[in-house]
Amino acid sequence: MATRKPMVAGNWKMNGSKELVQQLSDAINNVKSDQIDVVVFPPYPLLPMLTATGVTTGAQTVSENEPGAFTGEVDAQLIKDIGCQYTLVGHSERRSIYGESNDTVAAKFARAQQVGLTPILCVGESEQQREQGQTELVVAAQIDAVIDKLGLAALKDSVIAYEPVWAIGTGKTASPEQAQHVHKFIRDKIAANSSDLAQGLTILYGGSVNEKNSELLFAQPDIDGGLIGGASLKAELFTAICESAKGTV
Predict the structure, then answer these.
(1) Residue 72 marked ligand-binding
(2) Which of 91, 102, 131, 220 has the most CB atoms at less than 10 Å from its CB?
(3) Percent of the chain, pLDDT > 90?
(4) Is residue 64 a contact partner of residue 96, using CB atoms and an 8 Å limit?
């Protein structure tokens, strides 16, 4: 993966508790090193608790709006102020369940960068889209929405996570070869305009990553780590995945 530092990001989704913070924070801090970046995305109320333990944190989503009359939304500046460094934007569940469009995701990406958060842009296709041969078309459109709004250079201060929708929470995982193909497509797409930006861009794989398949996935030349769901809720599994990432350095 050239000189890119691997990243392992744990997305707790709507799971977690004060007890889980206590159980996992020590394990997460113990596995961190100069070799890899480890980030956790818990539900909003747990963010200050995890940040206080020294864990690098991010929000699972942020509003695209500046502060105002948006009941139930959370402003990116507030996320930054409590010590977070990252936010996910465009996770497939946000797109499919809450109807976030490519334009909305691009606006959230812009707001995150405006306040100094690093956005992790989630892209990926549904099973039907894959079967119809539309994977590259869908992924390209999701990335182009950000480029069209902010310019190619905006990707320099970001991370991309390829997460095939059909592999999230289903137990199905793209084979290392399938995942590598899309990761290479993303990197080649960026390289067509800036080879330096493309080579420096961290691209994660997300989709039923676990301690059994992470080593083979992370060994692929264009896969720089993982966006982990269920396995991030168990210390022994998450730390094992982090060790897999260290093994690629």
Answers:
(1) no
(2) 91
(3) 91
(4) no
Residue 61 structure tokens:
């989503």
Rounded to whole angstroms, the Cα distance separating 96 from 143 reads 17
Cite the active site residues: 91, 163
Strand partners, 226: 8, 205
The answer to whether the annotation marks 10 as part of a ligand binding site is no
The tens digit of pLDDT for each residue in 96-144 reads: 999 999 999 999 999 999 999 999 999 999 989 999 999 999 999 999 9
- Closest among 114, 99, 98, 13 to 65, alpha carbons compared: 114
Region for residue 2 given its phi and psi (left: phi exceeds 0; alpha: psi -120 to 50; beta: otherwise): left
Q: Which amino acid is at 18?
A: K
To 5 degrees, how large is the angle CA 180–CA 182–CA 184?
65
Query: What is the side-by-side order of every strand in the sheet holding 202-206?
Result: 37-41, 7-11, 225-228, 202-206, 159-162, 118-123, 86-89, 58-59
Q: Estimate the crossing angle of helix 135-150 against helix 102-115, to 10 degrees.
A: 50
Report whether 208 belongs to an annotated binding site.
yes
Q: What whole-number distance in Å separates Cα of residue 161 and Cα of residue 206?
A: 7
Contact status, residue 166 vs residue 126, Cβ threshold 8 Å: yes
